[in-house]
Amino acid sequence: MIEISHIRKAFGDKTILEDISAQMEAGKCNLIIGTSGSGKTVLTKCIVGLFTPDSGDVLYSGESMLTMNKHEKKLLRQQIGMLFQGSALFDSKTVEENVRFPLDMFSKQTMGEKQKRVDEVLARVNLSGSNKKYPAELSGGMKKRVGIARAIVLNPKYLFCDEPNSGLDPQTSLLIDKLIKDITHEFKTTTIVVTHDMNSVMEIGDHIIYLHNGRKQWEGSNKDIIFSKDTLLNNFIFASEFLQDAKEMRMIEASKNNQL
């Protein structure tokens, strides 16, 4: 479990986060949602240690990350998997080389042991046989799955996903959501997903934190969100649904035009 306690972060005279507290539970998909500029990315960077909060604390299994020494932080980061928004694959490396990268960096396993683990996680994301392909040969959804495979190759206790469905069509987004949800529940991972995709919220939102202007505006589950009376949250939800519907309509129109 990850606990954030009274986090505050400012850059110069501009306060980005103000007094945010929450618990990210193991075995659940914990979502951080909000409009652009609400503080989602800054909060996530505070949680993983890329930013140091001005005040407050970040606890991993009860241990303060802010008081850890360099060695302790290195050990913690080996327990963290990251799925980046753009997948962040190395274009010059094959799929298996990309997935093996964390093992090369942090593991003392033999090459045979690494290869076995790479094959296991590629099978887990339904990419068996894609080892020798390069990122340029993959679809957007396949790149995301390679990113997930790389993120879980070290058996992380904590998995961070930054806009995992960015740039994907609705059908592929559903597949990525299901994969993240299944991996989270299967391995009891503490998963944190930063997203503005309401389909993801309703599909995998076991625990949701809604940020507004740097503050925690609402907290609950995807079942609770339907009955929320929070005006700001409801405005965000309906705006997101409208934008998603508009996006799908544009895709349908584009498809029709391509067939003409």
TrEMBL record:
Keyword Transferase applies: no
Q: Which residue intervals define the domain ABC transporter in the entry?
A: 2-238
Entry keyword set: ATP-binding, Nucleotide-binding, Transport
Q: Which PROSITE patterns match?
A: ABC_TRANSPORTER_1, ABC_TRANSPORTER_2
The signal peptide annotation in the UniProt record is none
UniProt GO molecular function: ATP binding; ATP hydrolysis activity
Supply the SUPFAM superfamilies for this chain. Answer: P-loop containing nucleoside triphosphate hydrolases (SSF52540)
- Determine if rRNA processing is one of this entry's keywords: no
Q: Which domain of life is it from?
A: Bacteria
Q: Which Pfam families match?
A: ABC_tran
Know the name of this protein? Phospholipid/cholesterol/gamma-HCH transport system ATP-binding protein
Q: Which organism is it from?
A: Hydrotalea sandarakina
